[in-house]
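Chain A, query sequence.
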Amino acid sequence: MLTSINPKLPMRNKAATWEFYIEKLGFSLFGDYEVYLMVEKDEIQIHFFEFRDLNPLENYGQVYIRTNNIEEWYKQAIDKKLMMPKAGHLETKPWGMKEFSLLDPDHNLLTFGQDI
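Chain A, predicted structure.
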């Protein structure tokens, strides 16, 4: 039986990743090791591994996060002036989801979605 999934994303700088996820997005620290960081919020965890030579413009790390309060998450992203890709603003998709996307400091794409 599968019980959960915890994506692992690259990070160049642990302090910048910490600031983005904990201070800006409101995640809590789950584990902090020299070259590895784990954060959690509600029922999800995201893990990060050190990749100092990562070129953020060539990073294809992506996570899809389902939520039941998409409007609150979007407002928080706008209020905090978080980086969104050009096509990342809140919209209803043909597959029945309301979605928006953010880019973290290493250009990992976080897409937030809610069933409509």
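The radius of gyration is 14 Å. The CA atoms of residues 16 and 112 lie 21 Å apart.
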